[in-house]
Amino acid sequence: MNWPQDSKVLALCGGVGGAKLALGLTHVLAAEQLTIAVNTADDFEHFGLLVCPDLDTVTYTLAGLNNTETGWGRGDESWHCLESLEQLGADTWFRLGDRDLAIHLTRRALLDQGRTLSEATASITEHLGIAHNVVPMSDAAVRTIIDTDEGELEFQQYFVREQCQPAVRGIAFSGASDAPLSAGLRNALEDPQLGAILICPSNPFVSVAPILALAGIKESICRRTAAVIAVSPIVARKAIKGPTAKMMHDLGLELSALGVYQFYADLLDGFVIDEQDRGLIDEFPEPHRIHCCNTVMEDLGDRISLAQECLQFAASIEALE
Amino acid sequence: MNWPQDSKVLALCGGVGGAKLALGLTHVLAAEQLTIAVNTADDFEHFGLLVCPDLDTVTYTLAGLNNTETGWGRGDESWHCLESLEQLGADTWFRLGDRDLAIHLTRRALLDQGRTLSEATASITEHLGIAHNVVPMSDAAVRTIIDTDEGELEFQQYFVREQCQPAVRGIAFSGASDAPLSAGLRNALEDPQLGAILICPSNPFVSVAPILALAGIKESICRRTAAVIAVSPIVARKAIKGPTAKMMHDLGLELSALGVYQFYADLLDGFVIDEQDRGLIDEFPEPHRIHCCNTVMEDLGDRISLAQECLQFAASIEALE
């Protein structure tokens, strides 16, 4: 791979799918070359703790502590606290594992000491031996509200408690327009050496859109000459994981990689789709801006390969401009 | 035992020793006959949760969930969260077990919903099948501050983190003089059928004294004709458990059951000491107000026997007046 050592990369990332590509990127870029900015709009307060599902999925994935079967939470987990919560009549629809609880307790303690979410995240990732920079999109609270046929739901209520059953009519990001970018995200965006902005194959509507809803970020991205590349989370008209496909259906969007591209539209310089969707290339308005490769990341090799493909594609797109 | 069925009992109680006698009382009194009012001055905020060591020890003991070896926490406990907290660099001097965490999380959720500590305690004890009334001494925050030769320490810092090593120079109960009695404690004190107030064999200085420091409670106790009985936590010049003996030494008090009696002094109508201290009886100012029996509670039978002894003694003292 020919990505220059002095060129930096900003990855915008949600949970599971995004974390896989983020892990690949950490294997091909030095710590100082990469910033992973993570969606925090599906964070929520539970038992007085701040649960940050996407931040924690990225953290566990980079630290090698993630549960590879479920995609969320920690591997080697136990559920004794949850069993006891049930006995006490407490809410147990959000499954907090015993080991996972530690990250929420630690974050609560750090926030209570007056640290920002960025500082708490830095402390946690450092303790877990993560060298690369993982930052929340903002230190201010932004919350995804899903407007459904059963009324408005907070994201985790929709996603976990209601298992994505209600039909989605709209999605809003409460607080986003007033939320300043975190220092880590802002610094990455303003870095003169920024060579690429990579939108990971996360859910466009609830994982990436909240980041893009932050005040001024779209303008900042467009001002930069860095290549903006997204990877489609839709492969062969299906979502690899999670409710992306169902949301596209509910929202009346075309259920294909092209539908995702149209959603990001004016922001992208290039778009990565899966080999299985090669036949779609000519349907895109600028086919030379579409790159086809394997995007289904089953093992670490796949994650590293996709990271390399994305960077090489970004370098070639930059040369195009 | 001849305790009348229409006569009620109020037990004032700290952690381990108090919980044992409280358990005995639940076996000899009907649910509506007994109120167990528990010290909350060693409660503390940890990871944003409210940890209530004495309330929880009583709760676990009455529910049969307590750890019979340590005296605190739950039996059948695991420590996965604590291991992970360590890995994340969080404070682990206060050992929170996985199952124990559930009670703190549940209480946080209930308090965040606007319930009082009394209401949260009622919900928790009800879910655990505890029929008798367990109430915090107050719903307001009262905090024990230990003045030591190493400066002022919050109780759990002194007790758990510093392992009671610093010498005690004084003890204060921050907030006590403004803290209203909980409704449960107030109702028990005002109940016309109140026949006995039992001070359990808990630490007089940090478990019982905070209850007695609440505004107006001593006057309320003295106004009642109910017999006020205490059980000595000091047996043969040693504490059964915990730092009582060390505190008596540090505070320059006589290290014996007599020293405990002198501490409670004007409040008591009768005092229960252990068989091993029978030789001390004549040193008490009113030996006929001293009752000797086995107070070392090794098994459930001991707990029930001591409860019966205390009630019978209270009935005989009442007859004296």
Description:
The structure is a homodimer of 321-residue chains. A seven-stranded parallel sheet of chain A has the order 5-2-1-9-10-13-14, with helices on both faces. In chain A, strands 7-6-8 form a three-stranded antiparallel sheet. Chain A is built from twelve helices and 14 strands. Chain A is an alpha/beta fold. Chain A has one domain (8-320): Rossmann fold (3-Layer(aba) Sandwich), CATH 3.40.50.10680. Chain A starts with 7 loop residues before the first strand and ends with a helix. In chain A, helix 1 (16-28) crosses helix 12. Chain A has helices at residues 16-28, 53-63, 80-87, 98-112, 117-127, 155-161, 183-190, 204-212, 217-223, 244-250, 257-264, 300-320; strands at 8-13, 34-38, 44-46, 49-51, 133-136, 143-148, 151-154, 168-174, 194-199, 227-231, 234-235, 238-239, 270-274, 290-293. In chain A, strand 6 and strand 7 form a beta hairpin. The longest helix of chain A is centred in the last third of the chain and has 21 residues, at 300-320. The model of chain A has no long low-confidence stretch (mean pLDDT 95). Helices cover 39% and strands 19% of the residues of chain A. Chains A and B meet through helix 3, helix 4 and helix 5 of A and helix 3, helix 4 and helix 5 of B.
Number of domains of chain A: 1
Q: Could you spell the SSE succession of chain A in H and E letters?
A: EHEEEHHHHEEEHEHEHHEEEHHEEH
Rg measurement of chain A, Å = 19 Å
CATH topology annotation of chain A: Rossmann fold
Put simply, the count of helices of chain A is: 12
